[in-house]
């Protein structure tokens, strides 16, 4: 079947990587070429986690040569190793990046890659969250500074970055709705004697970590006489894998450029 989308998953041994492998194998339109992990694995072991092969980034050239899309749900370290060792091959395929905790230099790298191929990074691939981002921007625009914005997120105990990439995306959208930059109004957590009450216009972030929570986000708009809340609860990580595959299908064959989930979902 020549029209099948040939996919390589980076972060193969992780929870998202395994969820993606299962979903790709179950879909007749998709072909799983292999995975990329910290190291190259024995063939037998790779198949036990659902991959025909898993290679270290530096050994992955043969996988990337023939692929339509790379989906990366790994770590900033693995993402950097992949780009450093396979930049030329990445230029030939659609690149979907779900890894969070990326730094400004990584964002610059993504922009650079978008000069040669289609690239779509998203801190959250759920359709519901991306709709919520658009709603947060609208709400912040309409409500203005009279409503204090606080963003609360919860994730499983193994998550290492905080606040979550999604919380920051929601914060950036709310800040854009108010016509300000998030960097100028961001406040992470609150503790002790801050010396002053809450500043007007601040956007607060609060991260809860524990158990097996897949991902929950709440944006609160707190006014004098009312409170408006936008909320999203992710029930399973397949939700993100499903969105990433939707993005990969949409992205494959597009012109070089940096795209967003808003483009995929047709949200203005
Ligand atoms: P995980 O910890 O289960 O897996 C991470 C993968 O990266 C593994 O393959 C691991 O071997 C590799 N890795 C981790 N640290 C490494 C290092 N220092 N060097 C080399 N390789 C390393 O995590 P997960 O739950 O599968 O999530 C993976 C990433 O995707 C995280 O950044 C997470 O925040 C993000 N994520 C994004 C979305 C989204 O919708 N965008 C959804 C869920 C998770």
Describe the structure.
The chain has 268 residues and is an alpha/beta fold. 37% of the residues lie in helices and 23% in strands. The strands form 2 sheets. Strands 3-2-1-4-5-6-12 form a 7-stranded parallel beta sheet, sandwiched between helices. Strands 8-9-7-10-11 form a 5-stranded mixed beta sheet. Helix 5 links the parallel strand 5 and strand 6. It is elongated, with a radius of gyration of 20 Å. Bound molecules: nicotinamide-adenine-dinucleotide. The site of nicotinamide-adenine-dinucleotide has 24 residues, from helix 1 and helix 4.
Number-wise, the strands total 12
Uncertain ranges: none
Bound molecules: nicotinamide-adenine-dinucleotide
Shape: elongated
Q: End-to-end distance, in Å?
A: 35 Å
The structural class is alpha/beta
Which range best describes the helical content: under 10%, 10-25%, 25-40%, 40-55%, 55-70% or over 70%? 25-40%
Determine the mean pLDDT: 94
Strand order of the largest sheet: 3-2-1-4-5-6-12
Compressed to H and E, one letter per element, the order equals: EHEHEHEHEHEHEHHEEEEHEH
Q: Beta fraction of the residues?
A: 15-25%
């Amino acid at each position: 079947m020549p029209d099948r989308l040939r996919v390589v998953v980076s972060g193969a041994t992780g929870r998202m990587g395994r969820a993606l492998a299962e979903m790709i194998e179950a879909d007749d339109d998709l072909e799983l070429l292999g995975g990329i992990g910290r190291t190259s694995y024995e063939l037998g072991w790779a198949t036990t986690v659902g991959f025909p092969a898993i290679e270290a980034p530096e050994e992955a050239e043969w996988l990337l040569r023939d692929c339509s899309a790379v989906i990366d749900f790994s770590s900033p370290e693995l993402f950097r190793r992949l780009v450093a060792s396979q930049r030329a091959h990445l230029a030939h395929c659609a690149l979907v990046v779900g890894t969070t905790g990326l730094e400004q230099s990584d964002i610059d790298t993504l922009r650079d890659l978008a000069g040669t191929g289609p690239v779509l990074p998203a801190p959250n691939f759920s359709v519901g969250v991306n709709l919520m981002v658009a709603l947060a921007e609208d709400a912040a625009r309409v409500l203005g500074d009279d409503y204090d914005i606080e963003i609360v997120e919860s994730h499983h105990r193994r998550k290492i970055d905080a606040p979550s990439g999604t919380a920051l995306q929601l914060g950036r959208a709310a800040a854009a709705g108010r016509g300000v930059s998030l960097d100028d109004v961001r406040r992470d957590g609150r503790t002790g004697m801050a010396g002053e009450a809450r500043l007007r216009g601040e956007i607060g972030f609060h991260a809860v970590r524990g158990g097996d929570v897949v991902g929950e986000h709440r944006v609160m708009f707190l006014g004098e006489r009312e409170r408006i809340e936008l909320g999203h609860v992710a029930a399973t990580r397949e939700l993100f894998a499903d969105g990433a595959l939707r993005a990969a299908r949409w992205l494959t064959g597009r012109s070089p450029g940096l795209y967003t989930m808003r483009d995929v979902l047709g949200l203005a």
